[in-house]
Amino acid sequence: MKSTILLLLFVESTTAFIVSPNTIRQSVSLRKKYEDMDEEEKAVALEKATKAMTAFTNKYLENTCTKLCSDKSVPAVVIKGLAEHKLTLGAPLCPCRFYDDKEAEAKDGYWNCPCVPMRERHECHCMLFLTEDNAFVGEETSITYEEVIEGSNIQF
């Protein structure tokens, strides 16, 4: 008797899971690449990524007892850059540094937010996560999506 393999395709948001009888699961990406999107799709993707990076920032501020820069346009621009890198590189690569090869740096992970210096020593080159002893620290421990849009001049 021939053995047949039953494949079931479950679609949840942008990921599909292929399930075999042995319950081996493989993730298959159905997401369109950023460079293949039209302008409307890019705007929607950037909005979604910006909201996600804003939520990440707020949670990380809470978890690390750090604060935002007193000038909220600084974290707004950084969050925008992280969101753009998340879309174009697949990782939230620090937008405040120069890289000879952004793709290689994103794969390496050292400068992906939160970067190694932030995780190990609470040192954020971008001034997104500031400790009390930083001269530019403000009182705010969160930022809204609307503040990110306003502070970074994102156009959707």
UniProtKB/TrEMBL annotation:
<keyword id="KW-0479">Metal-binding</keyword>
<keyword id="KW-0408">Iron</keyword>
<keyword id="KW-1015">Disulfide bond</keyword>
<dbReference type="InterPro" id="IPR004209">
    <property type="entry name" value="FTR_bsu"/>
</dbReference>
<keyword id="KW-0411">Iron-sulfur</keyword>
<feature type="signal peptide">
    <location>
        <begin position="1"/>
        <end position="16"/>
    </location>
</feature>
<dbReference type="GO" id="GO:0016730">
    <property type="term" value="F:oxidoreductase activity, acting on iron-sulfur proteins as donors"/>
</dbReference>
<dbReference type="GO" id="GO:0046872">
    <property type="term" value="F:metal ion binding"/>
</dbReference>
<keyword id="KW-0732">Signal</keyword>
<protein>
    <recommendedName>
        <fullName>ferredoxin:thioredoxin reductase</fullName>
        <ecNumber>1.8.7.2</ecNumber>
    </recommendedName>
</protein>
<dbReference type="GO" id="GO:0051539">
    <property type="term" value="F:4 iron, 4 sulfur cluster binding"/>
</dbReference>
<comment type="similarity">
    <text>Belongs to the ferredoxin thioredoxin reductase beta subunit family.</text>
</comment>
<keyword id="KW-0004">4Fe-4S</keyword>
<comment type="function">
    <text>Catalytic subunit of the ferredoxin-thioredoxin reductase (FTR), which catalyzes the two-electron reduction of thioredoxins by the electrons provided by reduced ferredoxin.</text>
</comment>
<comment type="subunit">
    <text>Heterodimer of subunit A (variable subunit) and subunit B (catalytic subunit). Heterodimeric FTR forms a complex with ferredoxin and thioredoxin.</text>
</comment>
<keyword id="KW-0560">Oxidoreductase</keyword>
<dbReference type="InterPro" id="IPR036644">
    <property type="entry name" value="FTR_bsu_sf"/>
</dbReference>
<dbReference type="Pfam" id="PF02943">
    <property type="entry name" value="FeThRed_B"/>
</dbReference>
